[in-house]
Amino acid sequence: MLNFESFVDLPLIWYGLIATAVFLYILLDGFDLGVGILFPFAPTDQCRDRMMNSIAPFWDGNETWLVLGGGGLFAAFPLAYAIIMPALYIPVIIMLLGLIFRGVAFEFRFKAAGKSRRIWDDAFHFGSLVAAFMQGVIIGAIVQGIKVEGRSYAGGAFDWLDAYSVMTGVAVVFGYALLGGTWLVMKTDGETRDWAKKCASYVIGYVAVFLAIVSISMPIMNADIRNLWFSMPNFFFLLPIPVASLVMLIIIWRDLHAGREYRPFLLSFGVFLTGYLGIAISMWPYIVPFEITFRQAAAAPESQSLLLVGTIIMLPVVLAYVGFCYYLFRGKASHESLY
Amino acid sequence: MLENLDPTLLARIQFAFTISFHILFPAFTIGLASWLAVLEWRWLKTGKQVYADVYRMWVKIFAVTFGMGVVSGVVMSFQFGTNWSRFADAGGSVLGPLLGYEVLTAFFLEASFLGVMLFGWNRVSPKMHFAATVIVAVGTLISAFWILSANSWMQTPQGFRVGADGLLYPTGWLLVIFNPSFPFRFVHMITAAYLTTAFTVAGIGAFYLWRQRHIAHARVMFGMAMIMAVFVAPLQLVLGDLHGLNTFKHQPAKVAAMEGLWETRQGAPLVLFGWPDQQEEMTKYALEIPKMSSLILTHDLDGEVKGLKEWPADERPPAAWVFWAFRIMVGLGMLMIATGVIAIVLYFRKRLFDTRWFQYSCMALTPAGFVAVLAGWFVTEVGRQPWIVQGLMRTQDATSPVIGTSIAISLAAFIIVYVFVFGAGSYYILRLIGKGPEDAQAAYGDHGVEKPPIVTELTGKKGEQHA
Question: Which of A174, A245, B20, B80 has the fewest beta carbons under 10 Å from its own?
Fold first, then answer.
């Protein structure tokens, strides 16, 4: 039977791959959810059409990374999947319902006329907002730890809900708004771009504040995280992460005012990367904080091996044609109906 | 009140609801994607505008349906964990990779090239666009391959061992993927999807013919759909029969429920209609044909067919559900075959496109495929109960540690949202059908978009021919 256990560290590879898939999801769906968050604040309906068109060819593929993250977690770390999903039952389902509303809005909006178009404008905005907020709540709940007994979730239905997870929920909404705003700066022109610039530079301040709150609060809440970050020499090795984050935020702000259109978006990716790395390092080596490590949750090595073969073959292919799609639909979006 | 609800039952209802809603969309898009590929191929080959028009009309319907399939499908990828976490834990090492492969080999492919298919008219050549359509069609088939393999494994598990920790571990991947019921279920489902699409298209084509609108386009739709009814509907009978024999071999309790048979006997009758009563362990008011069940299942008038009493009461599926769902599916299949036969007769009398009563009949059968697909899935899923993995794990042992109240509320939320969202989707699809193929082009004009070059090119070609 296919088994690479003796050659490579399968659980570690899969931990990395799942973390990467989740990160790509956050980045990619992040910018299109962000567009949805900013949607009602746009100055004109024409702007809104442009905003929608700028992401219409991509949102479906972006959301597939969520399915890969969920499906991959099930495949590579079934125990973690089996504990996290019941623990986060309510926020996960609310997030999914939000994604339903905003997903169908793409198709329905251009088919609806007059008043009913409003319904789908709202569906797109509130769906995106709720999905983003719930994703932030989920992150906030996970970093605070999940109650486990044996191989099952042992907490209550509302353990995920507290002031901290609400705060991370709001933080993710602002983070996605930054991604969405800088995306629009890159992908639109004229009035829409100018407005998006304003939005993005407005949101940057909030993003900085929330990043600071999360960075300070996590070491305070958890002794292990405190020791990890503030012991020597770790402190100096890890210091570049928050510093890079701060520097990138400043550059984005300056770029937006200097009229650069591409770099703010790419640097927003960078800001998310540093934030994600910061959390990932703090969680190490847990996959269900602070109960189950990724090694304990790993699927059978045969399962991880089989999936690894598929991933090594398919992932470059997937990345290639996803890249091809982004290339094909490059340039500025128009406001005319694509459908 | 809510505390008294049985979480297992609620979880089952919720899963049945979300998966039933979801399967409607793939059942339609699998067939539609393949048909669109054929249409575009015909168009590239013949240069006939009518194919392009029909393609353009149906690709919009495809887009709406596909969008609804995606969002309801994302829900499914989480339901394993939210509703069946103990199953996810125990079976993850075996089933997880199959689902992982589905995402890697199908979902990204579909999602990426759907963008090209819908928005790429102005950006890629006609050939590349055709390639995108074909890729999307192939993607839907690959997706069906993996998910049906996973489902079939739950029906006829093999290629695994039960570890000391009670979890399942794979021992042979080819055995897992190509488990005994998989080839039959896969072929049966793909054919069902093709028929679902064919009868939907036939119904709408018949509607236009009846209203005498878009006649040229309607003939393409109706004619191609009838070809499917003539050839594929009878084929489905054969495939379904083979699938049934496979089930008889591996899941005899399911077949006993399908047939409404309680006693094991030689020369078992075929119960046409009746009411299987779980408590009294008999099928009431049965209308029977002697020895037919034995003949169908064992190809011998006196062959032995096991009855439900062969299994202890807590290992029997709820017979009435399975029995009636099976009859609905088979009944609709028979109507589809009859449609094909009538179509042949009318074709040779040169009355295929203008027989009014046949148009009514086809319009009435528009949803037939959807109903048959749902009924078929009820047969196979309810018929597997009380097991989630046949003979290995009971459904009641697979649930998540989530309280009934949470499940009940989320179930209510799913019902409200699905009815609203998918009701709106159906409304927009009906409006697209109301507009019909020719107006589809005017709609492009309304939005001030330049005519897609593909059409312009074609008009050019036509002009040359005239000249």
Answer: B20
d(CA B170, CA A302): 7
Residue B394 phi/psi, 5-degree rounding, is -85, 150
How do B270-277 and B282-289 pair as beta strands? antiparallel
Complex ipTM, two decimals?
0.86
β partners of residue B389: B393
What are the structure tokens assigned to B350, written together?
A: 């040169």
Please name the residue of chain B whose CA is at the shortest distance from the CA of residue A318.
Answer: B108
Indicate the domain borders of chain B.
181-402
Which tens digits make up the pLDDT trace of B247-300? 988 999 998 898 888 888 888 888 888 888 888 888 888 788 888 888 888 888
Per-residue pLDDT reduced to its tens digit, B107-147: 888 888 988 888 888 888 888 999 999 999 999 999 999 99
Hey, is B274 helix, strand or coil?
Answer: strand
Reading the block at residue B23, the tokens are: 């399967």
Structure token pair of residue B418: 């699905």
Q: Is the dihedral of CA B220, B222, B228, B230 positive or negative?
A: negative
The token pair that represents A213 in the structure block? 């709150």
CA distance A249 to A242: 11
Nearest Cα of chain A lies from the Cα of B383 at a distance, in angstroms, of 26
Q: Considering only the beta carbons, identify the residue of A81, A112, A318 that sits closest to B92.
A: A81
Element (H, E) at B216: helix B215-250
- Tokens coding B213: 């609108």
Paired tokens of A151: 């191989």
What is the spatial distance between Cα B278 and Cα B115, in angstroms, rounded to a whole number? Answer: 51
Answer positive or negative: Cα dihedral of B242, B243, B244, B247.
positive
CATH class of domain segment(s) A10-328: mainly alpha
Domain segments of chain A: what residues? 10-328
Q: CA nearest A106: which of A44, A47, A59?
A: A59
Closest CA to B126 of B417, B461, B465, B466: B461
